[in-house]
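Summary of Year 1 activities. Much of the first year was spent building the evaluation harness for sequence design. The harness presents a backbone, in tokenized form, and records the residue chosen at every position. We chose the following record to illustrate the format because it has been used consistently in internal testing since the harness was completed.
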């Protein structure tokens, strides 16, 4: 009887050939923490010549691993037979690594990747979020300290933002998602502002007007400007306005 063949008709690949072709670094350690097998990608990531790690003790080659998550996880795999996965920074390389270690009969097997670029991108995104939040607080504090009204509506004529002076005039708690009629405007007044918002979106240009309005401050006359807000692609993404009691 002929020996069974894989479904695709090809012979099974040699395990070493597979380990040499993967896009992750891989190495094995024996019970004395000596490097046994180290694949090509591991040598590339660690920037060391092929074969240079074989037989060397992990803690002697990389003393900075001791006392870190690397050592704790490797020892759990070696001593307790646990699989471990973690992301950690190695100061000696100034890099972040994603690491998974497995217990093995002869010691420990380790897969790892250099994820420094990803971690730097995450850190930059976090920095931008923090900076954006800081700027938002600054802008809102400035806008809330003026008696003029500042507000933003989306393309469906729903309120996105209103400063404190305007929120008090409208007499509502949360303006977000509300349309003109929800904010106490008469039908003719709401229709007029809806048409103006559509015109700003269509022409991509600001408009100015003057209108009476009865709010919590009584009946007043206001001068206002609606202006387009552009996104990164140059398209109008919202309409912002300022209003002054004249």
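For this record, the design step produced the sequence shown next.
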């Amino acid at each position: 009887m002929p020996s069974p063949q894989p479904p695709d008709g090809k012979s099974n690949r040699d395990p070493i050939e597979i380990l040499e072709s993967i896009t992750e670094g891989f190495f094995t350690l024996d019970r004395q923490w000596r490097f046994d097998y180290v694949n090509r990608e591991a040598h590339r990531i660690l920037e060391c010549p092929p074969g240079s790690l074989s037989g060397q003790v992990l803690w002697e080659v990389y003393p900075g691993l001791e006392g870190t998550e690397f050592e704790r996880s490797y020892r759990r795999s070696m001593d307790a037979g646990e699989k471990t996965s973690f992301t950690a920074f190695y100061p000696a390389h100034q890099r972040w690594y994603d690491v998974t270690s497995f217990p093995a009969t002869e010691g420990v097997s380790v897969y790892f990747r250099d994820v420094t670029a990803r971690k730097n991108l995450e850190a930059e995104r976090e920095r931008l979020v923090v900076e954006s939040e800081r700027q938002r607080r600054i802008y809102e504090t400035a806008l809330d300290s003026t008696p003029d009204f500042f507000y933003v509506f989306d393309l469906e004529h729903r309120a996105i933002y209103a400063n404190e002076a305007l929120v008090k005039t409208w007499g509502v708690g949360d303006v977000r998602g509300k349309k003109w009629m929800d904010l106490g405007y008469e039908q003719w007044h709401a229709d007029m502002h809806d048409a103006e918002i559509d015109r700003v979106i269509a022409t991509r240009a600001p408009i100015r007007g003057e209108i009476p309005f009865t709010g919590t401050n009584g009946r007043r006359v206001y001068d206002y400007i609606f202006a387009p807000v552009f996104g990164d692609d140059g398209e109008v993404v919202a309409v912002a306005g300022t209003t002054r009691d004249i």
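DSSP finds seven helices and ten strands in the chain. Quantitative recovery figures across the full test set are reported in Table 2.
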